[in-house]
Design brief:
HTH_AraC; five-stranded antiparallel sheet; elongated; transcription regulation; 48% helix; four-stranded antiparallel sheet; Jelly Rolls; alpha+beta; Arc Repressor Mutant, subunit A; AraC family transcriptional regulator
Length: 255
């Protein structure tokens, strides 16, 4: 069951005025929303966020071209969270706050993940709140960026990916498939994977294919054409060329 309601929205060019019985965090990745709370008005943009405490009257109007993360936080749920008291302190008063580049980049990444994997809204919301709590409680912007990278990189479980790859070496393997195993968007998975391993996902897949092939070349009597098929090459010629480039020896000589 979801603790939070987190949505990526486009706030329309329509004036809305209301109150609600939950706290609300608003962060934009692009566009502008005019928002006022109890007489204090500002613009929510990629550089300016907003915290709206429960039961505080507010009005807003978007520009119709914004992309805005809206997080609803039920007050009753905070007591059950490990850092609930720190999160509650964020909403001790209505406030607008500056969004540093590191937090903006994390917001972009999490908005993409939310659209890719809406079932992870709880995890994404908690990560967003942790980052915001660090920033507003005097953490450095660099620490905010490191938090986002660390938490996302934790989901790049190479052992799990290797096990999946070894079962699908004969198949076409796409970055989108690998990203979905880690609940990340393809673009973000690609950048995180390269930072973690030093190679692109497809280069890693190619390496995995060839290393598996070398075991078969050296320790089996299967034909080179059969081995090529088992590890996902379209023909023996392309397999032999890739093998020679990687190991600096042909598969027939290696055998």
């Amino acid at each position: 069951m979801a603790l939070f309601e987190l949505h990526s929205r486009n706030l329309a060019q329509e004036q809305v005025a209301h109150t609600h019985d939950f706290h609300q965090l608003i962060l934009a990745t692009c566009g502008v929303t005019e928002l006022s709370m109890e007489g204090q008005g500002e613009r929510v943009t990629a550089r300016r966020g907003c915290l709206i405490p429960s039961s505080r009257h507010h009005e807003y109007q978007g520009d119709g071209s914004n992309r805005t993360l809206v997080l609803d936080i039920p007050v009753a749920q905070l007591a059950s969270l490990e850092k609930g008291s720190e999160i509650e302190r964020l909403f001790d008063k209505p406030r607008f706050f500056s969004v540093p580049p590191a937090l903006n980049q994390l917001t972009h990444a999490l908005a993409n993940q939310l659209e890719q994997c809406p079932g992870l809204q709880n995890e994404i919301a908690i990560l967003l709140l942790r980052a915001l709590t660090m920033y507003l409680h005097d953490a450095t912007p660099a620490a905010v960026g490191q938090l986002g990278q660390h938490c996302i990189s934790e989901r790049l479980d190479l052992a799990r990916l290797d096990a999946w790859l070894d079962q699908h070496l004969a198949d076409e393997i796409r970055v989108e498939q690998l990203a979905s195993l880690c609940a990340l968007s393809p673009g973000h998975f690609h950048s995180c994977f390269r930072e973690l391993t030093g190679v692109t996902p497809l280069a890693y897949v190619q390496r995995r294919r060839l290393e598996h092939a070398r075991t078969l070349v050296r320790h089996s009597t299967l034909s080179l054409g059969h081995i090529a098929m088992l590890v996902g090459f379209r023909d023996q010629g392309s397999f032999s060329r890739a093998y020679r480039r990687y190991f600096e020896v042909s598969p027939s000589s290696d055998r």
